[in-house]
Amino acid sequence: MCIVMFLNIHIGYCLTCEYFDWMCSTSCLISHESIYIYDLENKLKYVMVSYNKLYCGAMKVYRSILLLFCCKFLHTLALDCSVMNGNLKQIDAGSGSVVGVNNNNEAFVLIDNVFTKISKSLKHFSVGPAGQLGVDSSYNIFKLKSGSFVKFPGLLKQVDAGGDQILAGVNKNDQIYCVNMDANNNWPSCNSPWVNLNGGLKYYSCGPYSCWGVSGDDKIWIMKDVSNNVCSGAGTFVNIDGFLSMIEVATDGSVFGINSNGMLYQRIGVTRSNPSGTKWQVMSACPNKHKHVSFDLGVLWVVCVDGSIRKCTI
């Protein structure tokens, strides 16, 4: 257990407070007024603490508690948002279209700025250069073809169509799969289009040159060198600083995510030459916590924790 009794503290930047976990990993009693920690960019930062006492026991503080403490001092970018009619649990935007599903697994498509219900029942819905795909409550995959949803081979709990005409997703066992452009476009002539990737993720999303995912422990991972003919990319996932519960990559490569405490982030500095980016920027679109996010054509679509929908310009 780590108990911090303080008057004030000034922190330059923090996403997960993982460094306070380090402080609490061993028993200690700090009576100084100055400590040093490393920030997310691995640069040494000076932190001045005014306090009565800081005592750390043998047990680590839960990350969520530390997050709430530390992120009070983050610079938050407030977005210019409008409230949309409707209520969703998941949203996805790509190639000029926006889709989503609600808590009853009813699927919606944005038509003339109105979320319009369609006949298909889905628990996750995705749209992008690879088409429109969704998965139902039995993990069956469906792809929109000639105006109708047709069953696609395989079983997934989450699917993504945002890559360069490639598909990606994860199954109920957190196994990761992708489909190359030719197999996707030539289906159904290709009976087994899915490529199995090493590793385990609970959420996976692709852009034009990289794919990002989060694992069961909320760690963030990137697969670099992804192309429409090699959806498996470099073949090895690289860990990115921070913790998120879901993540989305836009068709222009932009990366956004939400953590387990409902905080919204954008990855800054993401380019084709530097797909990992440089740091996280905390953002605010909802008056309460955020639940799901997607981005396309300069518009950030956010589902708040109460299911309300925000359309934001950034």
UniProtKB/TrEMBL annotation:
Keywords: Lectin, Signal. Residues 1-16 form the signal peptide. The keyword Transcription does not apply. Pfam families: Tectonin. The keyword Signal applies. Coiled coil: none annotated. GO terms for molecular function: carbohydrate binding. SMART domains: TECPR (SM00706). Belongs to the tectonin family. This is Fish-egg lectin-like. It comes from Cyprinus carpio (Common carp).
